[in-house]
Amino acid sequence: MNRTAAPDATHLRPGLRLVIAGTVGQHRTTRYYAGPGNRFYELLHGSGLVDERLDPDTAFRLPDLGVGITDLVLERVERAGHEPEVLIHRREFDRAIRMVGPTAVAFVSKTAATWYARGAGERLPQGYGELSWTVAGVPAFVLPGPSGANNGMPLALRLALWTDLADFLEHLEGTGDPSMRTRA
User: Fold this and answer.
1) Domain for residue 182, yes or no?
2) Where is the Uracil-DNA glycosylase-like domain (predicted)?
């Protein structure tokens, strides 16, 4: 397998409740969601998905709280005489999801979900929430992005949509018990 095509598995392990996925090109980061204005950790905690407020420097704790983070790898391919195209490394991503076996996969933006849908031949997401298709057989969900670039969407609305993910997970797990929110 092409190592650059494989999603980062640093924050993944079997048995996680949730895997949250964004997109990455050739330049990977070692600090997830660390950009200026990024509200990822605030939304993750505020929604009840984790019971501990983390930050980019403590993201290594996410798997202990039942949450993994990774990226769908995109590669810009240029061939002489053709328009550039984007290659989506979906098989490698699906393989990583099967290895983890989460209850759900959440794309951290409509852009990430759209890239996956294109690569899988699925219907493009029209809004936020549960998707009509799965990722490697795992139910999928799309969230509004947490980055500073998405600050035009009110924080209260973004938080409500992230809380919908927590409710979706409870439904999938067949429990309304908040203690299930941090299963590791």
Assistant:
1) no
2) 13-165
